[in-house]
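Try it yourself: sequence plus adenosine-5'-triphosphate, in.
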Amino acid sequence: MKRRNEQKNVICACMTSTRNLGHDGFPGRKFTEASKSENWSKEVNHEDDSDILIECRNVYKSFGEKHILRGVSFKIRHGEAVGIIGPSGTGKSTILKIIAGLLAPDKGEVYIRGRKRSGLIGDDEISGLRIGLVFQSAALFDSLTVRENVGFLLYENSSMSDDQISQLVTENLAAVGLKGVEERLPSELSGGMKKRVALARSIICDITKESIEPEALDTMKTIGNASLTRTS
Ligand SMILES: Nc1ncnc2c1ncn2[C@@H]1O[C@H](COP(=O)(O)OP(=O)(O)OP(=O)(O)O)[C@@H](O)[C@H]1O
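Structure, out:
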């Protein structure tokens, strides 16, 4: 994954070798020395906290008797791209859902750009935090073409013409390395291509946010299972 723009920041949850972090001039930082979430707090000390975009403080989350997150604390700074690494079922997606406001923590706090997230994503007071999601399952609409999936929000909620939307869709697909797939159905794509289509859908929301109703943006953010969160 390469950073295209200094203003974009990406957090991802994945199962990948730690050696992939920090390559290609890409600032990687490892939270986890072990899979347990209580070890996620290890991080480099910075003197200046003014560039913190996302901060989790002592976050706890259980599902019934399963204590998944036990005091997770970390800060993510402007310009950083951070991978959360760990075995399946250790809570990577759970912490992303909490950051994005799809789940509430049992205890602890999440700050986005210094603002405490005290509710879920649909709450008025936190609208406009501009967190985009790409879902683990891609969460594409099976019966819609790639063009319709990526432009979904715009077709439904903007005043843009079909031609304008179409052009934006093509540009955003090209930005994620996909060309000539606009008229395909999701079933005709590989798993990786589906993920990139989902990423294009997330990016298009950000680029065109001025022309979209705020409530529609919130709706778009809540579909599916998050594996990657992007803020700008
Ligand atoms: N809504 C839920 N209800 C009950 N249990 C849940 C719920 N969501 C997640 N869990 C449980 O919490 C644990 C952590 O799930 P999570 O999806 O965060 O793991 P993960 O680290 O992202 O896993 P993977 O790498 O396999 O995607 C798992 O045991 C899962 O079964």
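One thing you can check immediately is this: Confidence is low (pLDDT under 50) at residues 1-35, 218-232.
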